[in-house]
TrEMBL record:
<feature type="compositionally biased region" description="Basic and acidic residues">
    <location>
        <begin position="16"/>
        <end position="44"/>
    </location>
</feature>
<protein>
    <submittedName>
        <fullName>Uncharacterized protein</fullName>
    </submittedName>
</protein>
<feature type="region of interest" description="Disordered">
    <location>
        <begin position="13"/>
        <end position="44"/>
    </location>
</feature>
Length: 114
């Protein structure tokens, strides 16, 4: 019996070709669902990566905001009778505000209370 298989449970002979056709139709029925799930997985991964990027951007904006707040506080604390900006170990001071000239002096490590 070439190409035929006897199934005692069913009580009749069935063709192997029809079994293959049934298996193929089952696979083709599942293919659209699998494709949809792959597309949705990709979309979910893309959404997760975008939310991570926006979280990083928000964290960066918060840190920049904190830094600018700290810089403003430092500038307020440095103001006295003259304006000054610190650049590492040097301080740019403007002895007379009306002249608009700056003098770079080395910052002292020891502070002397006047």
């Amino acid at each position: 019996m070439h190409g035929l298989m006897s199934y005692r449970r069913f009580g009749r002979a069935r063709s192997l070709h029809s079994d293959r056709a049934n298996a193929r139709s089952l696979r083709s029925d599942r293919a659209p669902a699998r494709a949809r799930s792959l597309r949705s997985d990709r979309a979910n991964a893309r959404a997760r990566s975008l939310s991570l990027c926006s979280d990083r951007a928000n964290a960066r904006a918060r840190s920049l905001s904190l830094r600018s707040d700290q810089a403003a506080t430092r500038a307020r604390s440095l103001r006295s009778d003259r304006a000054e900006w610190t650049f590492g170990r040097y301080v740019a001071t403007e002895p007379w505000l009306e002249l608009g000239r700056f003098v770079a002096t080395e910052r002292s490590t020891c502070s002397v209370a006047a």
